Structure prediction request, 195 residues.
Amino acid sequence: KRVAILISGSGSNMVALADSMTGDHPARPVLVLSNVPGAGGLAKAEARGIDTAVVDHKAYPGDREAFEAALIERLDAAAPDVICLAGFMRILTPRFINHYAGRILNIHPSLLPKYKGLDTHARALSAGDAEAGCSVHEVTAELDGGPILGQARVPVEPGDTAETLAARVLPMEHRLYPAVLARFVTGDRTPVALP
Ligand code: GRF
Prediction:
C-alpha cells in the first residue's frame, strides 16, 4: 500500500508513521507533501529518502479550489492508496475529500468528539477534564468528524498548562497513528485504544 503524508510543520507524526512502515509492514510512504515551504518535516522526509513536495496555499490567494486542484494533481502523481494528514493545518473541501473518499486519515489532539477545531488542550484544561488525549479518524466533510479509528488517553496533572499537556499527548500520537495505519491498510477498522 502506498501512503502519502500531508504536513504543515515539524512533521513529528509523519516521522512516526514513516518509521513504522518497515519490514513486512504492507505499506510504504511514497510522498510527504507540505503546504508550507521549508516546513521542518520536509528535511526529515528527505533524510529518510522519501519523495517530498510543496504546494503552497499562499500561491493561490483566496482560491481554495485552485489550491486543492494543485494538491490533487501532485498527490495523484504519487498514486497513493491512503492519505495521512499529520499536522496538516488546511481545511479540505468536500471536493478533495470525495476525490479520496474513505482513504484519508487525520490525527487530532483531543478525545473526539470533544474539542473539535483548535486549542484543544487549553479547552480541556478550562473544562477541568481529568484526562485528555488524541484521536485518529477518517476524514469526512465535517471538520474533525468522521469515524474514530483510535484514541489514546493521558491523565491531566495538577498545574498542567496547554504546553505540558501537549507534551504528554504528543508521544501518544506517535504510538497511536502508526497503530491505526497498520490496521487501516489491512482493512481492519477495529478501533485502537491506548494505553
Ligand atoms: C500535533 O499536536 C498533532 O496532533 C496536530 O498537529 C500537531 C503537530 O504535529 N495535528 P506534527 O509534530 O507536525 O506531526
User: Anything to note?
Assistant: The chain has six helices and eight strands. The helical segments are 12-20, 40-47, 64-76, 94-99, 120-126, 162-184.
